[in-house]
Amino acid sequence: MGEWVPDILGEGFAQLTLPLGEDAEGEVVATVVRSLPEPVPWWRMGGDRRPLTDVDVLYVHGWSDYFFQKRLARFWTDRGARFFALDLRKYGRSLRPGQTPGFVTDLAEYDADIEAALQARGDAAGRRLVLLGHSTGGLILSLWASRHPRQVDAVILNAPWLEFQLGAARAAIAPMVGLQARLWPKDVAPQVDLGYYTRAQNEVADPDDPMEIDLSWRPEQTMTVHAAWLHAIFEGHAAVAAGLQILAPVCVLLSARTAVPTRWSDELTRADSVLVVDDIARAALKLGSSVTVERIDGALHDVFLSRREARDEAYARLDRWVRGWAHAVQLR
């Protein structure tokens, strides 16, 4: 294991490169970013009363994305948790020259990234693990949590990509995509992203708490979609549809509605323009035996990047769920 070095996010953030071997495109690495809670002064009476002092959070980003949300990290560290965010192989900080961004042929390849990030926490004895995933990261973590049920204490999903946008047609499309993935794994799917989701985020961005985004890691239009990657996603969706076995309680945060991004309108600043949220809400019920679905009016696809009112509501719902979960665990 290497050493922690300052991260691009500045003060309070450090990063660690996680070597994962090589593939046909060369060196493969993941990168974990760490944000730790401020220590409680030694003279404070009663010690550290923050509710999550024994919690580690591992965040995984979505497709065509990387970790940059300092505000999300602060939510957790303000409550005493240690926060870790993983830039998966061939994304963001982990992308190396000559690599195909985001390309894998099986979502289980990310098991190695996740295990390395968990090892990078250091001493985790007696600490609870919360998995936090957005979009494709939510799908990846859901599958991992189902395969590793005893390692997870809670799962929180921010608009997880649990079903294809044309869910009713997935079964018909999947065999063709599977054949294409075997014969021409890097065949390119047509670009359907017109950049409206990025525009919506810019429209509702908070000038009092700005975020600097590297467009080479998070382009205005989504990264190129390849056949083998799409087949891996379909396999993940099929596994969710068949039912997962996540033993830990699950909280799913979603926008209240979907807006189809065929042309620009203000509606795109108040809805999920990426997923069909009603389909995701139904699919979420197949993750495990304890699932809470929170629908947030006015939220974007990433509910924590919504306009202030919806974002505040998303954090309030998350805070309520997390405090209830933490208190319930303490009462056992």
Automatic annotation (TrEMBL):
Coiled-coil intervals, chain numbering: none
InterPro entries: AB_hydrolase_fold, AB_hydrolase_sf, Hydrolase_4
Keywords assigned: Hydrolase
GO cellular component: membrane
GO MF annotation terms: hydrolase activity
Source organism, top-level taxon: Bacteria
Pfam families: Hydrolase_4
Domain Serine aminopeptidase S33: 57-206
Protein's name in the database: Alpha/beta hydrolase
Species per Swiss-Prot/TrEMBL record: Microbacterium esteraromaticum
